[in-house]
Write a structure and sequence with these properties.
The chain starts with 12 loop residues before the first helix and ends in a 5-residue tail after the last strand. It has 2 domains: about 1-325, Rossmann fold (3-Layer(aba) Sandwich); about 335-420, GMP Synthetase, Chain A, domain 3. The protein is globular and about 65 Å long. The protein has 11 helices and 22 strands. Helix content is about 30%, strand content about 25%. It has a 9-stranded mixed sheet, with helices on both faces. With about 425 residues, it is of the alpha/beta class. It binds zinc ion. Zinc ion binds near residues 253 and 255.
Length: about 425
């Protein structure tokens, strides 16, 4: 049998390759519908809308969403405790649900009876999962919805799911081998554990296993780990971005270089302080609106920091891409009007192998923010001023804010110190 074509085509061509205008009109309609439904059936959202004096007739397109407050994850538990189980967040009565999921918090999540959300299926197809693939799901099936979503979504693509859950590495390996499993769904670190264990059992990862495509989530995927897994197992590894509350928000295609917005939801990137959408390539919080009538989360703040790009992609998908997840909003600091995140500082420091320890200190001089990257070096280089100069250039390039680099004797920065020390005092 010829190898499957795992790089071309789309799961939802009607949505994935539509032009920008048609997409806008489609999403505007869905937003108007979802808001009207949530207002009528989910009292917690009706109250949110009332708090800003908005009526369903005011929110008829994507751009109108900016009028509504953002609901942060931390609020959900509190809202629910005021009226268990769902605190008025559910958009359908209890008897029409299939499940109640229990997420950490606790947050009780209504599970719709008919799961027709195909955003994960879009992601799987883009990753290279194809009809007839056997796919092993190694995420946890207890309490939380994620693994159930993946299982149902594999079925939408025409794959056969093996619901393994977490752990049991030996049984996982035996199953991969016996069933000639082509697809893996799980964390990248667990896939590495499986590969190590299989090798220690004397298996040839490429000959004895038949893995072709992996979908990894729930952990950061360093490119070095991706490369090593792809090479060792002879498979393709793709990732997506989403949360346990709002599902899949974006996913990689064969060309990678960011993650396409999933279709059939609204992804906004907003200024965490004002809640207003930011422009292309500007960092901000990812905020999602999903069209789930049983659990209509409208302007849900993920707490994750990212940016989007409208650049065209060779895969043909026309949706914007999230460029990368930069960290959590609660760790971000605004310096000279720009968001600076610990991961950005780390990125600067990692460009210079001489740097052993570092901390970004933010101060205020008069009415100006001053940013100093304090560094301790392994060995003093021949030309300290040259290193200082190139590090300052890297700061400007990566953080998009200029600052100064200062060297000090090793051992003064405590181990595990904060990456950003914001010393500004606001009076
Ligand atoms: Zn693409």
């Amino acid at each position: 049998m010829p190898d499957k074509d795992r790089t071309s085509g789309y799961f939802r061509p009607d949505l994935e390759i539509m032009d920008a205008q048609a997409r806008q009109a489609y999403l505007d309609r869905k937003v108007a519908d979802t808001v009207a439904h949530a207002y009528a059936h989910a009292p917690a959202f009706a109250r949110k809308m009332a708090s800003v004096g908005a009526l369903p007739g005011d929110i008829t397109k994507v751009a109108d969403l900016a009028r509504l407050p953002i609901t942060e994850k931390g609020e959900l538990t509190e809202m629910q405790q005021k009226g268990l189980p769902f605190g008025g967040l559910n958009g359908e009565p209890l008897e029409s649900l299939s499940r109640i999921y229990v997420s950490p918090g606790p947050i009780y999540e209504p599970g719709e009876r008919v799961f027709d959300d195909d955003r994960w299926a879009q992601a799987f197809y883009a990753a290279g999962f194809r009809r007839g693939d056997i796919a092993q799901v190694t995420f946890n099936f207890n309490m939380v919805p994620f693994a159930f979503w993946l299982d149902a979504s594999l079925n939408m693509v025409g794959c056969v799911s093996v619901p393994m859950g977490v752990g049991n590495t030996d049984v996982q390996i035996q199953t991969l081998k016996d069933l000639k499993v082509q697809g893996y769904l799980g964390t990248p670190s667990f896939l590495a554990t499986i590969a190590d264990k299989a090798e220690s059992l004397g298996l040839d990862l490429k000959k004895d296993l038949n893995l072709r495509v992996g979908f990894v989530a729930a952990e950061m995927l360093p490119e070095s780990l991706r490369a090593s897994l792809q090479e060792r197992l002879g498979m393709v590894i793709r990732q997506s971005y989403g949360t346990a509350d709002v599902g899949c928000l974006s996913y990689e295609c064969a060309h990678m270089n960011g993650m396409h917005f999933a279709q059939d939801c609204v992804v906004e990137v907003v200024d965490p302080q004002t809640g207003q959408p930011v422009g292309e390539n500007e960092p901000g919080e990812v905020v999602a609106t999903i069209f789930n009538k049983a659990y209509p989360l409208i302007r849900f703040g993920t707490g994750d920091l990212s940016a989007y790009s409208n650049a065209a992609c060779a895969c043909g998908r026309t949706s914007p891409k999230l460029t990368r997840i930069m960290g959590r909003v609660d760790q971000v600091t605004k310096v000279k009007g720009m968001f600076v995140h610990p991961s950005g500082v780390q990125q600067v420091a990692q460009k210079f192998p001489e740097v052993m320890a570092y901390q970004l200190v933010v101060n205020r001089q008069g009415h100006n923010d001053v940013m100093t990257l304090v560094c301790e070096l392994k060995d003093a280089p021949a030309d300290l001023s040259e290193l200082k100069c190139s590090m300052e250039m890297a700061m400007k390039e990566v953080l998009r804010v200029s600052g100064e680099v200062e060297f000090q004797q090793p051992g003064q920065l405590p181990q595990g110190c904060k990456v950003i020390d914001d010393r500004r005092v606001w009076k």
